Amino acid sequence: MNTMKTWLDQQKEQSEAMLTLLTFAQQEAYTLIDPPYFVYYDQFREQNEHYDPKRSIKMTNPLGHVLVLRPDLTTSVMERLRWHKTDGALKLCYYASTFAQGKERLEVRKEFGLEYFNAPHIEGEITILKTLESLMQALHMEVTLEVGHAGFMKKLWTLLALNKAQTKTLRTLIKHKQSDRLAAFAQTLNTHQHQPLIEALLTLEGSTEKVRATLQSLGYETLFETELKAVEALEASTNLPFILDFSLLSDLEYYAGIMFKAYRQEDARPLIRGGRYQVELLEGQAVGFSFSMAHLLGGEDDV
Q1: Do residues 230 and 301 both lie within one domain?
Q2: pLDDT value at 2 more than 60
Q3: Structural domain contains residue 274
Q4: What is the percentage of the chain residues whose pLDDT exceeds 70?
Q5: Edge-to-edge, what's the strand order for the sheet holding 58-60?
Q6: Residues 126, 233: one domain?
Q7: What's the predicted TM-score (pTM) here?
């Protein structure tokens, strides 16, 4: 009975939080939608080659198409919506679950998210961060922003001209913050002139001034000026504590600009993930963020 009471209390908390979130979204002119449960597996894999296929929950429809049970809500929304850049601005929100196969059991994350389609560059990011800031105030929560830029890594991959195996290794070293192995890896590459940049990748975090100074000392400030200016514009627009991290990576490869995470001081897990993204099927882009309802309330996702 105690377990049932605890579960009921959790459901009550989620219901109250959901009502607060939906009221907030409505006030900000976001339309609530119900994302599709399935996306085409081949398209998802093509767009997200670094997403672990073992985590996908697949099935075949009557027409023989292989589908995957909603691993990500952004992909699901974009694929169904088909909202092009000529269709104008659109604000949507959702409250739905994502699914993945864990090592021993099914992982289910119930998420709330806001998406601003065809948001103008920089202005759209500023708008979505101000929305995030207002939402945190409504929920009486304090968070710190960690901000990166997908353009930095795209330029880096082009600069280094790595093969698939090398790219995978480098991504793993960056993701797990393995600075000692990163230095050793840099020495194995033919691009010796870029070795100092590779070795410094994990130091490209902190204040925007510090990161700019580091890139300047290495001779790469001009190459990454677009990304630096975008992040600096965001930092100037928000009152939230702000950390730049150009080593920020995602397994979902639809990000096409600013990427960010938001953390509460007492939790090492990111509460919020977001940024600007584009699905190849569309010409338009969107900027937004989402978070796990369980994490919001200080719990764990359902399994």
Answers
A1: no
A2: no
A3: no
A4: 95
A5: 38-40, 66-69, 58-60
A6: no
A7: 0.88
